[in-house]
Write a structure and sequence with these properties.
The chain contains 13 helices and 22 strands. It has helices at about 15-25, 40-45, 75-90, 180-190, 215-225, 225-245, 250-265, 270-280, 295-300, 355-360, 395-415, 425-440, 465-470; strands at about 5-10, 30-35, 95-100, 105-110, 115-120, 125-130, 155, 170-175, 195-200, 205, 290, 305, 310-315, 320, 325-330, 330-335, 350, 380, 420, 450-455, 455, 480. The strands form six sheets. Strands 1, 2, 3, 4, 5, 6, 17 and 18 form an eight-stranded mixed sheet that branches. It is globular and about 70 Å long. The chain binds NADP nicotinamide-adenine-dinucleotide phosphate (NAP). The site of NADP nicotinamide-adenine-dinucleotide phosphate has 20 residues, from loops.
Length: about 475
Amino acid sequence: MQQYKVIIVGTGFAGICLGIKLKELGINNLLFLEKAEEVGGTWRENIYPGAECDVPSALYSYSFEQNSNWSCKWANQSEIHEYQINMAKKYALYEHIQFSQNVVKAIYDEELHLWQIDTSTGERYLCQHFVSAIGQLHYPSIPAFNNDHLYKGDLFHSARWNSDIDLNGKEVAVIGNAASALQFIPEIAKQVKQLTVFQRSPNWIIAKPNRSYWPWEKWLLENVPFFMSLKRLALWLRGEWVLLPAIRKNPLARWVLKNMCLWNMKKYINDPELVNKLTPDYPMGAKRILFSDNYYETLARDNVSLDTSGVESFTEEGIKSKDGEVNKFDAIIYGTGFKTNPFFASIHIQGLDGLSIRDSWEDGAQAYLGVSTKGFPNLHMMYGPNTNLGHNSIIIMLEAQARYIAQCIENMEQAGISAISVKPEVEATYNEEIQARLNNMAFSEIDQSWYMDRGRITQNWAGSTSEYMRRLRHFDLSAYQVLG
Ligand code: NAP
């Protein structure tokens, strides 16, 4: 059986970035295992109408591969996916990828210092370094509603969009109204006869405002050195200096953002009762701050209605609301997000002393720098615990992790070290610090969100992206035990 230096699971933005950084260091004994048949991760999977990034594209791209060809300020799914494919081609990553390989098990062999990786098709792979680059948002969350098994119409989740179903002229319900739903609701509202949006809680929504690049802007981006970098810098600073302070509960930043949201809403919604229903009662930044130019405009359409009473039960033909109203729907679409916990829901990972990562994390996921966790030698996580952001581009975090992991592997090579495991006390101290800081941030001002696992914030980072980059700039072997 061939033995690899590094196996990376997943070929989204994280995996591609690490592949590039490893190859730059001359580490070519590298294999990607990808469950699908193309690279792209979330940008391959989420093909719902209107799918586009809510981080401006000038920032939502690798710092070392800035792209002056985005058609508009917030690129759509297909353009972002094309960018990823181009990256994988440019850096010759395809030759390292095994597609249709869904990893189900990873067992660490303490004597050989090797990870044994099994896939659902029965293949087995061996490697020294096992990297998870599977993302945080890939298992659709489908809530259980009373009698949902009775419903006979079309039913699907936004992340499993069924393009075979023609929604033209249909009566459609959407359950959920957050980042995904508010992108596809405006698109399908143009086609359907009647659309009902089931909103459990409203969100803070700022205007983007998206538009195509003007020709002179494109010219500047393509021809003037540093223009793209300056644009990127300005967008990055907006996240660090405006959005992050709001998440850190700064009253002025919150006041500014709140008024931007209300202005965005009141441009289209005049009815005070509807304004009331659409105004969140939770603090700015506790959940993801959303961006849309056309969500409120869509809600104001004659063929769109908002149900805030809630879903009482499904019927054979539709939904009975909690206010007693029964409506027929040809299709019901879940915009209900993702199961974010437990981490590694579909992979059994076993480290030292036969301990599974699920048992190791019985109180919720945690990791040193979001990358390493005690008892799991040479397991490196990308977009791991406490590395999600509510204020800036996740690609900044992924690049920091890719550089750190590549450095770690290179340093171990040079020092002749086979295996390391983060010191338990280092991980514990780090996590105490992160949790204490998170407790003072907006994320902990509500009882439940996808950022949390049983009340503890397991998904989000506690600081700025610049702090995270600084903390991961230099791999420090003294934080780890050398096992061999
Ligand atoms: P989400 O933020 O988890 O939102 C799920 C929606 O479904 C919420 O409105 C939620 O209501 C509702 N919901 C969940 N369970 C429900 C139930 N039992 N009954 C009624 N309503 C229910 O999911 P998402 O919109 O897919 O977004 C997830 C994350 O993906 C985002 O936070 C973001 O990080 C990422 N994303 C990014 C982009 C981008 O442009 N970069 C686009 C889409 C998604 P409550 O609010 O009351 O819980």
